[in-house]
Amino acid sequence: MIEITKEPNADSRSAKEYDVLPKEQLRSATESHIGHVKDGLKFFADMLNESGANHDHTKLDRFDEFHKALTSGKIKNSDWYETHINKERHHLISKVHDDVNLVDVFEHLVDCVMAALSRGGELYDIDLPNEVLQKAHKNTVNLLKKNVTITESYNILDRLIDGPDL
Q1: 92-107: pLDDT as tens digits
Q2: Measured CA distances, 153 to 13, 14, 87, 128, 135 (Å)
Q3: Which of 27, 66, 72, 75 falls 20 to 30 Å from 142 in CA-CA distance?
Q4: 26 and 100 share a domain?
Q5: Are 140 and 103 in contact (CB under 8 A)?
Q6: Same domain, yes or no, for 25 and 36?
Q7: Domain that holds residue 108
Q8: Cβ distance 112 to 105 under 8 Å?
Q9: Pair 69, 111 in one domain
Q10: Residue 148 has what DSSP assignment?
Q11: Residue 34 phi/psi, 5° resolution?
């Protein structure tokens, strides 16, 4: 869970009292915001690392079925393939999961580029329908929102005078 603090006076869009806002409070609020963004990006970086670590796991977990499906010449009509596209989230042409997100989109893009370049040496057009991208965008925003908790902000001047809470 990402914890952020309310900082209403750190931005021109939300500041209510910027004519009396001390520089120290603005600096502290700005540094907090930068830390919040860093934590949010780390959240997604961790998800990207996890998707890379688990990429195509059904090929290895069910290797004999994968081999049989591949060598049958009817891979997309196999039980293995149905399992593969249902358990893996990055095959966005074959199946778009209801909770598709931008991590899935990145994995899809990286998978397509790496497969094309390593197998045939040429990159083909990688197109995704706009509806998939918009759904992934919306779901990613909601995913981040669900993983953020907000605590009340504090006045930096009060903290300097009173000292840290113990």
Answers
A1: 999 999 999 999 999 9
A2: 17, 14, 41, 41, 33
A3: 27
A4: yes
A5: yes
A6: yes
A7: 2-55+90-161
A8: no
A9: no
A10: E
A11: -60, -40
